[in-house]
């Protein structure tokens, strides 16, 4: 087992990882930018190393600075958390070259799943259902027009280097293709330095349902059922829950099997997520595979009573997983509490937290690095807390979430707490009647 893990991240996830390391008897190294010198991960880690100024490119994204910090402190592994360098092929490879275990996917897995057209081709070959569309990249505008006719409009064109909606365009009719093709290519070139585009049939009003998976170094794989992440705004998830209110036992069985096929197809090592779109007929299609721990891993942990960070560390150290799948009996919901004004287009609201009081009680979990007197720097993601509830049923979980939100007091900044309070009272949400389009029409 590792003796010392460096956490190449900040905020709640850095703290989350430190907690598990402590429970496992593993020493921890926090790295921090000057903006984070007063943060809880820095206080709670055994050692802390400053790796640069607030701007991420010179600190949390600086491979050289992070490797130097690992060498100085003699860390034998690095946990990247989510975001930042967690799905960076080069970082995974450089860790390998320095004899430091990267607690995440191997470089070639990151590369192959990061290129969405390659990922899709891999999944088709493995027998995982995919959305009908182009085979590989679309070479030209003329080619796009020919293929779209075969696929039948509406179609969606997607940047192969994308994900998260960048370089993605919905095309409803042929006469719109040229302008949308050109703008997607331009956006992809600017954002990713790669303007490769592929095409699919556009699925209207889908649900975003993902399967948590794990694979070990010995070829074993298992799944831990689904999370419903359909409540999103501009590709930012707001609420996640498990099980999905749209799920059936049969669909879970089949999506779980497909996710295992995906895991085995890439000899996946570590914990990961296979994202699917599910249409109104409950047909499901592979969308992307995430080779990292996700923000919403918490709800899966609550329903299976299992520490996914611990599992990541054990898999990275070479331990075997049992290979049995998980079909939980509880219901968990997570609300992402962001330092944003939900009544002003979710505008970021960094600054000093003057009052902080968090809810508690049975079935309530909070993952946060916030405290009274903490100043949220303006340089990073605006998520400051995750409020998670777990209960016997979805109805009880919603009641518990309403109660917990009412107890949650954060003053000095604007937060998304009032948004979540309205959402938990919404009839369609409470009936499980929502798709990825929900936020486009939700008024509160
Ligand atoms: C789609 C789609 C409909 N049809 N693909 C959004 C981000 C990227 N991961 C893929 N996305 C989508 N791909 C086809 N063929 C709709 C979306 C989509 C979406 C997916 C999941 C969650 C929220 C979404 C919001 C808008 C569009």
Secondary-structure topology with pairs:
Elements: E1 4-7, H1 11-23, E2 27-33, H2 40-44, E3 47-52, H3 63-73, E4 77-79, H4 89-97, E5 101-102, H5 107-114, H6 116-125, H7 141-151, E6 155-159, E7 169-171, H8 177-192, E8 197-201, E9 207-215, E10 221-233, E11 236-242, H9 249-265, E12 270-278, E13 284-290, H10 297-304, H11 308-316, E14 331-338, E15 340-341, E16 347-348, E17 351-352, E18 355-357, E19 364-368, E20 375-376, E21 383-391, H12 394-407, E22 409-411, H13 417-423, H14 427-430, H15 438-441
Helix pairs in contact: 4-5
CATH T-level fold name of the largest domain: D-amino Acid Aminotransferase, Chain A, domain 1
CATH architecture descriptor name of the largest domain: 2-Layer Sandwich
Tally of structural domains: 3
The largest beta-sheet arranges its strands as 13-12-9-10-11-14-21-19
Task: Specify the CATH class of the largest domain.
Answer: Alpha Beta
| Small molecules bound in the structure, each named once | ligand MV4
Summarize the structure in words:
Helix 4 packs antiparallel against helix 5. It is built from 15 helices and 22 strands. With 444 residues, it is α+β, with helices and mostly antiparallel strands. The protein has three domains: 100 residues, Rossmann fold (3-Layer(aba) Sandwich), CATH 3.40.50; 70 residues, 2-Layer Sandwich (Dna Ligase, domain 1); 234 residues, D-amino Acid Aminotransferase, Chain A, domain 1. It is globular. Helix content is 33%, strand content 26%. It has an eight-stranded antiparallel β-sheet, sandwiched between helices. Strands 3-2-1-4-5 form a five-stranded parallel β-sheet. Helix 1 links the parallel strand 1 and strand 2. The site of ligand MV4 has 17 residues, from strand 8 and strand 13.
